[in-house]
User: Fold these one by one.
Assistant:
Number 1:
Amino acid sequence: MTISLRGKVAIVTGANQGLGLEIARRYALHGASVVLCARDSGSLAQARAQLQAHHGDGQGFDAVTADVSLSPDVDRLVAHTLARFGRIDVLVNNAGIYGPMGAIEEVDWRQWVRTIEINLIGSVLMARAVVPTMKARRAGKIIQLSGGGATGPLPRISAYAASKAAIVRFAETLAEELRDFGIDVNSIAPGALNTRMLEEVLAAGPDKVGAEFFDRSVQQKQSGGAGLEPGASLAVFLASDASNGITGKLISALWDNWKAWPEHLAELAPSDLYTLRRICGRDRGADWGDK
């Protein structure tokens, strides 16, 4: 699949490290102009310098220190991007944190709420800020990073799990709101990544995150995890015209054959395939549970 992002302008949040930085790098390699966003100005400046190495004709790069959970910061980031480039084609909501780890009655409540503010509210604020300019052009791509908490419970990491489930359902809802405007909204499940967040789990220890989750994290650390490439490649595809019409989906970078999806739009678009849904008794052969 040959993909070009030449002429497109993308905002990538949480782009100072890990998957966010890798997505920004891939966008640059495919010809996009990229605006990086993160709270840490020092690491953000280093990330921008790395991207400059991939500079091509007609491309531009910028970095804006901002906290996506703060509406004034979000408005400033979007206004800066529009002033610099005149358009926003792609938004990647990658900024996120694990938040407090431990039993719900024991964790710091302010940290729990802060996790919701960054992971959920921050993503909603960013989407809300870019939608008007995308609507005006009747085109755009909003890409939301998901996580394991979206599709299954994560005991002792409840703020993260709740925020990820909520933001995927928001993305599905927003996709329906924007379907008639040519704006696609999708979520990415990138797989288990060996990033800063994994180190936080290992540092917290089994007493905080639970023995089972801790053991899986140790194994992930040793195996190398899923790697950044699958999630970044999927993010490139979803930013490109090749994915036009694919919207409202939660896509696994590792397990879904997303490269073939454009050939099946007629079947994919009206269906609830690759979405969050309740599992009924009839879905599992338990006919005693349903009327």
Number 2:
Amino acid sequence: MDISQSRLSFLDRFLTLWIFIAMAIGVAIGYFSPDVAETLDSFRLDTVSLPIAIGLLVMMYPPLAKVKYEELDNLLRANDAKKIIGTSLFLNWIIGPMLMFCLAWIFLPDLPEFRMGVIMVGLARCIAMVLVWNQLAGGDSEYCAVLVALNSIFQILFYSLLAYLFITVLSGWIGGVAASAYVNVSIIDIAKSVFIFLGIPFIAGILTRYVLLKKRGKEWYDGTFVKRISPIALLGLLFTIVVMFSFKGLYIINKPWDVVRVAIPLVTYFLLMFFISFWISYKLRFGYELATTQSFTAASNNFELAIAVCIGIWGISSLQAFAAVIGPLMEVPVLISLVSVSLWIKKHYYKENKGTKTIS
């Protein structure tokens, strides 16, 4: 753990602490000066809060600018590409969403707003912090970058459809007519939020990468530019958290147990997805590096997108958005701990063989 922690940047190492501080500031504002957040949210374009939109776009751009889109073709041409990609897509887009959906209904049957926020987290596949966890655990960095690129593309194409399926169709079917009417969400509303908060930074990230790679080269881009823009994402996240929690200051003080209840399915999800993915990768005889990449990619989530879409659909003061923001608070300490678990698995179940990782 100490070795892994030392390899994190100062900001990443204490990410959970920064989130706690942002939450505390937001709660204090909501309790002592409730008009501040309402004033910020009054600046709107249609249904979009401009301050929050700026914060979310700033939060989404850096991770999307980091993605190595140019390596997609190399993976598609590699040996066992279909097996690798097929496994990743199966874990990320079938197992992950279904598992979070089931956990949300098991642990939050009486809290529909929180349940929807948790489900939205499960549908958003990781495109940012997984690069950090994968590096610390000694995973395959090239495959990780390519799988992140694939997840980015799939979220553009399918997030709206899956959100409508799980939030409106399946939740309505399980909860009956009353629940169906209550959780009814337009696929157009979801698509609009996805385009604004994922599509725009996605396009900006691709353009930035290709233009600057051509002008300045890969070494400068990955070694200098990416390091300069990375803190911007954290600032956008913390600003969003401060504003969101300022709306819920009194709620958190009066009902802290609700925060705990939201955390339970999230933590359960991170742990189950990690071990399920590692077990499947082990059975498929993936080497340690690839198994680690598959596991962290599947266990992590794009909480930035989930927060953005929940805000876009239900509003900054909604319980759905509040539940989504609990995601990074739980994910960071759990995934850092799983780095140590992954290294333990490597020591006990894998062996070195001529420079490659093979199953013992």
